[in-house]
């Protein structure tokens, strides 16, 4: 539907898009009356619902642009534009109400098909299956209460499982912490043992060097003692051997005075 209202290019574009959606909605609802299959009707109604959402968004854009241009237009023009906005909103609300009517109709059709066709398509024993439409209000309430009790029991079981899981997790965390502390102590002990082994190795090396030095000294002293004993033995066996030098303290005393007298006597006379 064309309009002669003075609009800016932005408003005119938005207004045209809204009118296009209204025409699509009108055609869609006309097609909806001709569709007999409830599933196809539901699909068509979903498409129309999407178009209504787009129309609502465009009306918001129209209102926003209208407020931005309100200071530029005369009061009478602003009034006409606001009236047009209200008209767009009313028309959209009419389609929304029509959508609700069709949704109720389609829902009733599906329920009727379910009531009439469920037993024929999948027959089941009356002792095991009872349709909701054939149940009284008290039976529905009892069934609902039973379902709620079963749900509460399932929730309680879930809570117990969660509680047990939390306890197991707490115990596992405590065990892991204790094992972590134990591993830390083991690492510290290993460090101490490694340090002790290093100190012991150094001490063994020092003791080895000291023992080697002591052995060398003992060997040298042993050789000296052996040499002294050998000289003593040879001196005792061959006392007149001039090739063996006298050992201090073992040689016989020398008559020094007599020799001195024999040497100095002639010179005095």
What is the gyration radius calculated from CA atoms?
62 Å
Query: In DSSP terms, counting alpha (H) and pi (I) runs of 4 or more, how many helices?
Result: 5
Taken from the alpha-carbon principal axes, the silhouette is elongated
Helix content: over 70%
* Averaged pLDDT: 76
C-alpha end-to-end distance? 182 Å
- Which architecture of the domain at 9-117 does the CATH hierarchy give at level 2? Up-down Bundle
Name the structural class: mainly alpha
Low-confidence sequence ranges: 113-133
- Hey, roughly how much beta strand do the residues contain? under 5%
Q: For this structure, what is the CATH class of the domain at 9-117?
A: Mainly Alpha
Q: What's the total count of β strands?
A: 0
Query: Biggest β-sheet: count, sense, barrel?
Result: none
CATH topology of the domain at 9-117: Methane Monooxygenase Hydroxylase, Chain G, domain 1
| N-to-C order of helices and strands | HHHHH
Membrane topology: Single-pass type IV membrane protein
Organism: Acacia crassicarpa
Main location: membrane
GO biological process, one term: protein transport
């Amino acid at each position: 539907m064309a309009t002669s209202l003075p609009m800016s290019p932005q408003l005119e574009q938005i207004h045209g898009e809204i009118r296009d959606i209204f025409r699509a909605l009108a055609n869609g609802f006309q097609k909806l009356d001709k569709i007999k299959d409830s599933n196809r009707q539901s699909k068509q109604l979903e498409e129309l619902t999407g178009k209504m959402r787009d129309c609502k968004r465009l009306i918001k854009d129209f209102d926003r642009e209208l407020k931005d241009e309100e200071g530029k237009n005369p009061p009478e023009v602003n009034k006409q534009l606001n009236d047009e906005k209200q008209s767009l909103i009313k028309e959209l609300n009419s389609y929304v109400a029509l959508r609700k009517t069709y949704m109720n109709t389609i829902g009733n059709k599906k329920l009727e098909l379910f009531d009439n066709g469920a037993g024929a398509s999948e027959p089941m024993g009356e002792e095991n299956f009872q349709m909701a439409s054939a149940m009284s209000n008290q039976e529905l309430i009892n069934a609902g209460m039973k379902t709620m009790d079963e749900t509460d029991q399932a929730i309680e079981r879930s809570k117990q499982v969660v509680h047990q899981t939390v306890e197991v997790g707490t115990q596992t965390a405590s065990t892991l912490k204790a094992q972590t502390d134990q591993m830390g102590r083991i690492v510290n002990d290993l460090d101490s043992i490694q340090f002790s082994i290093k100190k012991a190795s150094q001490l063994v090396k020092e003791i080895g060097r000291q023992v080697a030095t002591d052995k060398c000294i003992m060997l040298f002293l042993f050789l000296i003692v052996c040499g002294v004993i050998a000289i003593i033995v040879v001196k005792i066996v061959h006392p007149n051997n001039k090739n063996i030098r006298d050992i201090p303290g073992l040689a016989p005393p020398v008559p020094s005075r007599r020799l001195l007298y024999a040497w100095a006597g002639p010179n005095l006379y």
